[in-house]
Design brief:
The protein has about 170 residues and is an alpha+beta fold. The chain is flat, with a radius of gyration of 23 Å.
Length: about 170
C-alpha cells in the first residue's frame, strides 16, 4: 500500500509546485504593464531625458515579432556544414503591425532567399557576427521588407542568431 501511496503523493506535490511556480512567475497582464508605464517617475530615480537613440524614445514605433525562426543551411563542398537559426522582429510605424502579419508568408519567403544568398556568399562562415556582415544582412532584409510592405517597416532587428556546426 505504501509503495503506491508515495508516488501519488510525489506526483501531487510536483504538480502543485509546478502550478504554483507558473502562477507566481506569470508575466503581468497587459493593463498592469500599461499602468506601470503611465506611473510618474518617483523622485530621486534615474532620469532618461538624454536618450541617445531618438527612435527608441519615440512612441511612433512598434514591433512585429515574426512567429517562427528561420533555419538556414550552410553548404560547403556540397554538404551541409552547419545550420544557422535566426529570429527576427520588424520595427514598424504605429498601426501597421496587422498589415505586416498579413504579409508574413511573403516576407518569410523573401527573407529566406536573402539569408540563403547570404549563406552562399560566405556570410555565415568564419566570424559571421562581425559588424560588416551583420550590417549587410540587415540592410538587405530591410530593403526586401520595404519592397513588400512599404516605408512602414523602419528596421529589421535580429533577436537570436545561432550557428550549429554539423
Amino acid at each position: 500500500m505504501k509503495a503506491i501511496l508515495i508516488p501519488v503523493i510525489l506526483l501531487l506535490a510536483g504538480t502543485g509546485a509546478g502550478a504554483g511556480a507558473g502562477f507566481f512567475l506569470m508575466p503581468p497582464k497587459q493593463e498592469d504593464a500599461e499602468h506601470a508605464l503611465d506611473c510618474p517617475t518617483p523622485e530621486g530615480s534615474i532620469e532618461t531625458s538624454g536618450v541617445s537613440d531618438p527612435a527608441a524614445a519615440s512612441p511612433e514605433r512598434e514591433y512585429a515579432k515574426l512567429n517562427n525562426q528561420f533555419i538556414i543551411p550552410v553548404v560547403e563542398d556540397e554538404m551541409v556544414a552547419a545550420l544557422v537559426v535566426m529570429s527576427l522582429n520588424l520595427e514598424v510605424t504605429v498601426g501597421s503591425r496587422t498589415a505586416i502579419f498579413a504579409a508574413e508568408p511573403k516576407l518569410r519567403d523573401r527573407f529566406l532567399q536573402v539569408m540563403f544568398d547570404h549563406a552562399n556568399n560566405g556570410g555565415f562562415s568564419g566570424n559571421f557576427t562581425t559588424g560588416t556582415k551583420m550590417r549587410a544582412l540587415r540592410n538587405e532584409l530591410l530593403r526586401v521588407a520595404q519592397d513588400i510592405s512599404g516605408p512602414s517597416v523602419t528596421d529589421v532587428l535580429v533577436i537570436d542568431l545561432v550557428r550549429q556546426d554539423s
